[in-house]
Amino acid sequence: MRPPILPPFSLFPRRRLSVALAATALLGGCTHLDVPLAHNYPASSQPKARSAHHWDVLATDVAQRIANRFSEVPTQPGDTTTTSAGNTLVGQTLRLSPAPAAPFQRAFHALLTHRLVNLGVTLVQAEPKGQIDVDVQVIDHASRVGNGSPLASTQLAASVAVVRDWVVYSQTATTGVLSGLALGALSDASRQALQGSAAGGPTRTEVLVTTRVTLQGRLAATTADIYYIEAEDSALYLPPPEALVPPAPAPIKTWTVVAP
After folding, report:
1. Is residue 210 part of a domain?
2. Mind telling me which PROSITE patterns this protein's record contains (predicted)?
3. Which domain holds residue 112?
4. Cα separation, 6 vs 12, whole angstroms
5. Is residue 65 located within the same domain as residue 123?
């Protein structure tokens, strides 16, 4: 005997639906937090670094911003006149501070050097008029709260309802395939809308890359960029651990045997 076919949620009796809504409203009205509610920031996006090419994109952008900022900075401290093409600071001699031993810093140092030179910035090792310093900070959020949607229960209920109706009502081969494709497309679209297009979505580990340009003793330009990274890639941005120095060998004691 075939099992009874249950109506979809949309065909539930109005009385049951009213009872469910009333219970939900009662539950929401009788409970509250003793602390301020937590609200999200407005929706925004943030890049995710997953390859050396992404490092090159960052180096290119930083070099361009530094070069553009130089064309706006007065030549002498206290000079408020607008710099012209013949008075640009791009031709000033600068020194890029040495890179630490971390893989990202070494690669970023080489890429930034390449991009700055191509933009006409003169980099020297001796007697520079300014210096470019790069700082990298890995930010690892240790809290257990994930970056998922705060409406996980609603999404789960909607998914269960869709799958239930798909199972209860008979499906032909064509409608089954189309329903499966539609369900998959809906799931993918929801994930991309909530997590973005980068593989893996938002993570709890980020990298802050800042550059500071000092010219003739004053801070002339700065940049700051934040990227998502996978937690497993943190080692690329951190200096290698210091080698353990073995302890000094214990002194050897010698005894001289004297005949009685």
Report:
1. yes
2. PROKAR_LIPOPROTEIN
3. 52-77+86-141+204-236
4. 10
5. yes
State phi, psi for 170 to the nearest 5 degrees: -65, 140
What's at 259, amino acid-wise?
Answer: A
Residue 217 counted as domain residue: yes
Print pLDDT tens along the chain (260 aa): 555 555 554 444 555 555 555 556 555 555 566 788 888 888 888 899 999 999 999 999 999 998 887 766 554 554 433 344 443 455 678 999 998 889 999 999 999 999 999 988 889 988 888 899 999 999 999 887 766 555 555 555 545 555 555 555 555 666 655 555 555 555 555 555 554 555 677 889 999 999 999 988 888 889 999 999 999 999 999 988 877 777 878 777 777 777 76
